[in-house]
Amino acid sequence: MRIEKTEVWITCDRSLQLNDGRAIRGFFGKMYKNIPEFHGHRGNKLIYKHPLIQYKIFGGSALVVGLKEGSYLLKAVPTIDNLEIYHRKYPILRQIKNNDDVLFGLTNDMISYSFLTPWIGLNKENYESYLNLQKKSQSVTRLLEKVLIGNILSVSKSIGYVVEGNVQVRAKLKRNGSIDVKNGVELITFQGEFEMNFLIPDFWGIGKFSSRGYGTVRYNKEGRTQWQNQ
Length: 230
Prior knowledge:
Blueprint: E1 2-12, H1 21-31, E2 41-42, E3 45-46, E4 53-58, E5 61-67, H2 69-75, E6 82-85, E7 88-103, E8 105-115, H3 124-135, H4 141-159, E9 169-182, E10 185-199, E11 204-205, E12 216-219, H5 223-228
Antiparallel strand pairs: 1-5, 1-7, 2-3, 4-5, 6-7, 8-10, 8-12, 9-10, 11-12
């Protein structure tokens, strides 16, 4: 299926870091506090669904990406003069908005993707399974592949896309340390590539804390050849 995608690139007079994605989310959440899609809350309650607006940092600039309903909302975002990060305002030097229709969903071909930012795939339950596999010196790849499929099903449900077929995946991932997502809570991350019979828009994030920029993927143009040669 084709869905609408909007990207808003924002460059301010400070070079931003990956963990600033949380602050960018807070900035837009405050600006549009009555629109849950911008901050993932309804009142004081968290909305448990895959976010259709995500906040990322690339090359020191902020990137806000929206799909479908999220895209419609981002198209209405005006030009901003200042970006507030942790209670400090920084003048915006450039703001660029791109709109496009992109393909999403099952495909007959296996498509290769790379994680541009660390992927947080494990929750409390599958983390225990991950540890048990490690203790037995068994491969964790199949577990991570199942989690990736679950991530895709979650995105599909949020968009309203019905997956009428089997999602196939093959992953080459390695542990990439851990990230402090909030006070006293650290989650392990993974980096690498995966191949899937599913079309995912570039710069879209999957997995936990994708709204803050984690788990962002991009189509790997050279990936099919690399996988076929192994």
